[in-house]
Structure formats: C-alpha cells, structure tokens
Write a structure and sequence with these properties.
Strand order of the largest sheet: 2-3-4-5-1-8-10-9
Shape: globular
CATH class of the largest domain: Alpha Beta
Oligomer: single chain
Distance between the termini: 56 Å
Order of helices and strands: HHHHHEHEHHEEEHEEEHEEH
CATH superfamily of the largest domain: Glutamine synthetase/guanido kinase, catalytic domain
Bound molecules: arginine
Length: 340
C-alpha cells in the first residue's frame, strides 16, 4: 500500500504515532490469522475525525504491532510503563448516591470480552463468527435464576420485532462508519444477537464490536447493585468460556481504548444548572477521571440536560477502583449541581 496518507485535518492518534520508520517495520508483518497493519488502520484512514483510528483483528495484533499500538495505548489511557492488569472484581457496597431520584436517571455498566482462540470482529470469518455465537449462546443457557433469560439471534427476528428491541436498546444496530471501515459490519446481521434477562437488567450483546458486551443496567442510581449483578453474570460466563486476556494489557478488545478492565461504568444524569456551567462540569469530570458523552452515547448531543457520565480509565486500574472513583465523582457533581 505504501506509507498511508492520512487526511491533513486528522488528529487521530494513529496518524500521530505512525512514522514512516514504524510503518516500514510493521507493514510486511501478518499475525497467524493473517491480520495486517494496513487492515488495522483502515478505519482511521477512511474517517478523518477518528480519535484513535486503529483496531486489533486478534489477540496477537497487540504484541506484533506493539510499536504502533503501545504509544497509542500510553497516550489514550494516560499510563506509563510499567503498568499491569490488576483486576479487582469484588462485590461492593457504597452509600446511596441519589436516593430521591432527583438527578440520576439510570446506571449502566458494561465490560467487553473476546473469546480466546478466535479473531476479533473486524477480522473474523463467518464460520468462526457462527461458532462464537453458538458457544456464547450455550453458556447463556446456564445463568443463575436472578439473571436468567433468553438469547435471540437477529436472524430469527422480523423487521418490526428488531425495531422494537432496538428502540428499547436491548438489541444493537449495525455499527457506525468507524466500525464499518474496520470490517466489523461484514455479514451483518448474521451470527449477531442479544441475551436479555427477564427483568431486562442484565444483557449480553454477541458479535458487536467485541464477541461479548456484558451489560448490567437499571433505572436507578444504584451503581453498586448494577456492578454486583454484572459480577454474577461475569462469574458464570467466565466459568464456561475462555476470554482473551493478557497479564499486562488485561482483557483484549477490538479497539485499544477498551483494553484493561474493558469496563465502562456510568450513569445518565440530569444536570440543568451545570449544563449552563460547562467549565465547572468539565473540571469536575477531569478531576475525577470521568468522561462526558451526549445522551445517546458516543458522538451524540446532550438532550434535555441529560449527560452520560462514565469512567475514562480502564487500564492499570481495578474494576473496584473505577467504581469507587465514579461514585466519588458523581457525588461531587451532584453536590455542585445542588449548590449552584
Ligand atoms: N475508531 C473510533 C475512533 O478512533 C472509535 C474509538 C472509540 N470508540 C469505540 N467504540 N471503540 O474515534
């Protein structure tokens, strides 16, 4: 392909760190499953507004293409060597955050996982994708009573049924243009589907950006309850499936922004006063290592003062620590909102 020409306006981390020397060194390499650097950077090349611009096609990509991925990981996660994966997945109990339901509308925590031995979604073949769906759906049959439910494959759903599940945010849509350029949408909706517990508070998305997105959520501020439910599901899935995990990088994911705990824990929170004091809100979020997104998640705008606030750190920090930071940060934000 020759040294790639990124859009002049692109601020993607991949553009910043992919020097001609690094390109020269890596361009001729292939992982054992045949994943290349050119494939990894395709999305960043096609989408000048990418922030990162690179995806991993399998677990080996993280070691083989470390000369480009490592600087991106250091920059995005703000970690310095030496760091390591330090899991801490114990049930947790913290003071109620917003018991009168004045601010927090809902809480949601997800972790991403990929199965060991399979290529990741941007590079997987259709047969393997089907095998992933089969293994995960089998494991989901053995969930404990509290989160028992059923798995639905998208191919078995009619158009209007699919629409209903999409509007309830139980199902997931075809990926965005970033994922599309990375190859994640190939053969959509084949071998994709979702599991939902009967009370719809525990879900698993299969073959979205990662093989599994394990999700716990509810319409309350009880982030600990949501976390503990996630642990229950994770324990049962982890006992039946083998996940791609590395001692240093933690859980390996398609996008290098998600490695480590692969956890995003957050709330939808209504902040009418802070909406008019964005500087203060941003300051509080930064201070507590939180990220603010629009109401509909990534790349969306804020609707009726409802912000999506979640952890920014995922790597070199435990899940328990992330949850504590979120809790402290949200308490500070609620305090500021009350006192404005
Ligand atoms: N590839 C996109 C970018 O570089 C998305 C990055 C993070 N989001 C994600 N869903 N992995 O901006």
């Amino acid at each position: 392909m020759g040294f790639p020409r990124f859009h002049p306006d692109s601020c993607a981390l991949v553009k910043r760190y992919l020097t001609p020397e690094v390109y020269e060194q890596l361009a001729c390499l292939k992982t054992r499953t045949g994943f290349t650097l050119d494939a990894a950077i395709q999305s960043g090349l096609c989408n000048p507004d990418s922030h990162i611009g690179i995806y991993a096609g399998d677990a080996e990509a993280y070691s083989l293409f470390a000369p480009i991925l490592d600087p991106i990981i250091h920059a995005y996660h703000a970690v310095e060597d030496p760091f390591e994966h330090r899991p801490g997945l114990d049930p947790i109990l913290l003071a109620p955050l917003d018991p009168d339901k004045n601010f927090i509308v809902s809480s949601r925590i997800r972790v991403a996982r990929n199965l060991k031995g399979f290529s990741f979604p941007c590079h997987i073949g259709s047969q393997d994708r089907g095998q992933v769906e089969f293994s995960v759906s089998q494991a989901l049959r053995k969930m404990p009573r509290e989160i028992d439910g059923k798995y639905l494959s998208f191919k078995d759903l009619g158009r209007s049924q699919m629409q209903d599940f999409l509007s309830q945010r139980l199902a997931f849509p075809k990926g965005d243009r970033f994922q599309d350029a990375a190859g994640i949408n190939r053969n959509f909706p084949d071998s994709r589907g979702f599991f939902s517990s009967r009370n719809e508070q525990f879900m698993v998305w299969v073959n979205e950006e990662d093989h599994l997105r394990i999700i716990s959520m509810e319409s309350s501020s009880d982030v600990c309850g949501v976390f503990n439910r996630l642990l229950l599901g994770l324990d049962h899935l982890g006992a039946q499936l083998r996940f791609a995990v590395d001692e240093k990088y933690g859980f390996l994911t398609s996008c290098p922004t998600n490695i480590g705990t692969a956890m995003r824990a957050g709330v939808h929170i209504c902040l009418r006063r802070l909406e008019k004091h964005q500087d203060l809100l941003n300051h509080l979020a930064n201070q507590h290592h939180l990220q603010i997104r629009g109401t509909g998640g990534e790349n969306t705008s804020v609707d009726r003062a409802i912000f999506d606030i979640s952890n920014k750190q995922r790597l070199g920090i435990s899940e328990n620590r992330i949850l504590r930071n979120l809790h402290t940060g949200l308490a500070a934000i609620i305090h500021a909102e009350k006192n404005l």
